[in-house]
Every structure is written in structure tokens, then in C-alpha cells.
């Protein structure tokens, strides 16, 4: 039996900017996981600060990959579904899930931040992405995405009761376990993470950094998946991922370079290595 676990990653691929597959693949690899990319589109850079990127869309590619893998009896230990971007990719990802027997289906429903959808998404897309939630084992939205999916008004501060309410609404959509990142606190100096599993909510807060970088959510979910494949529970895996992202941000803040280029994840990858 092959000694390395395998994860299929349905996500976009950016050439420059340290986001999406550019972050995900090295993180999973250094954690001893085989990352198998299934790009939803190719971009010269990510979309946050470099101007309009060169984009190549890949309609039908997810479906063709799924059929090829099924023909060759290729299976995965986990599926990581990230940036989809189109209704076709949402539907194809659902069919991909149905064709697999993976234990964990992790969905990062990427479509917004800072209280609103990204410019290329709208309420219709939010409704469509809800269709994949019942097929997930874990969803990892940021607070904006969680609020929009739950149909509640976004606020810059949040109480524990509101987080519980949001998680309850996500469960009604079909979510099983939930990890919400970038959760605002009642105190402006703090930023947190909510972990909801088996009707139990746990909140973890840290000091808010003055600087933000693109791609940290992709790193977070990658580390979460890698650690869970080491048979660590969800709560401890989320803490491990949260701490690693903080390490990357703190390292990157030591250097004067444009934040649009993302965190210096390469300088911290060694922290993820565990000797078997």
C-alpha cells in the first residue's frame, strides 16, 4: 500500500501572489501529503492588487478529471474544494464528490471578505454555493462568507451568541463541522476563530495584526487538512493551523515588501515537518 496519503485539491492556480494552489501544494507536500491539483482556472497573479490578471478558464476540466480518475480507480483520502467561481464548477465538484469514497470533504466557500462578496460574485452565486455544503465534512468560511451563507447581517463586532446563531443556520444548510476564520470580537484589538462540532462551539482569539496578506485562508485550510490526516482531531488541527498562519504573518511583517505578494510561507514550512 502506498505510504503517502493523497488529497485532490479543486482550486485556482495563480502564477504570482502566493495564493490558492501556490500555497496549498507546498504546505501539504511538506506535511507528507500528496497534493493532486485540479485547477478551476489559471491566473497570472491573484486578483488582489496586481491589476486585472491574465486568466484562462477551464470549463469541463473537473468533470473530465473525475471520469479519468474513476476509470483508473484512483481514490483520495480527502477532497479540498476551494475557489470554484462558476455554477458549472459547483455542479462538477458535487459530482466529483459523489464519485469518490473520500473520508473528509473540506469545502472553503471562497466568494467574499470584509462584509461583502468579491466583485465577480453576487447573491446568486452565494445561493448556488450553498448546494455543495450538504456534501461537506467540514466547511471553512471566513466570517463574511459565513454571515452571507447564513443570511445574517455582517457586523464588525460579534458576540458568542451571534456566532452560535450563524453556526446553527449553517447546520440547517447541511454543514456538519464548521471552522470560521477572521471572526471579529466585541473588542477591536482581537480577531478570532470559531470551531463548531457536534453542537459545541469553541472560540479562540488572538491580537489583531495591523497588516493583512492574501492567501492565508488557503494556508490555514491546507494545514488543517494535513494535520487531520495525521489523525489529529478537528479542534487541535484548527489550533495548529491558526498558529502556523500567525507564524507566517509575524515572519512576513519583519520585511518591507508589498503585502499583495502574500506571506513568506517558505520561511516557515519547516515548522510543519514531523518525524514519523
UniProtKB/TrEMBL annotation:
Q: Which GO terms describe its molecular function?
A: ATP binding; pyridoxal kinase activity
> Which InterPro entries would you find in this protein's record?
PM/HMP-P_kinase-1, PyrdxlKinase, Ribokinase-like
Question: What's its top-level EC category?
Answer: transferase
Work out whether the entry's keyword set contains Kinase. yes
Entry GO CC: cytosol
GO terms (BP aspect)? pyridoxal 5'-phosphate salvage
Query: Its domain of life?
Result: Bacteria
Residue ranges annotated for the Pyridoxamine kinase/Phosphomethylpyrimidine kinase domain, each copy included: 73-255
Q: What is its EC number?
A: 2.7.1.35
Keywords recorded for this protein, A-Z: ATP-binding, Kinase, Nucleotide-binding, Transferase
**Which NCBIfam families does this chain map to?**
PRK07105.1 (NF005491)
Q: What name appears for this protein in its UniProt entry?
A: pyridoxal kinase
Source organism (scientific name):
Clostridium vincentii
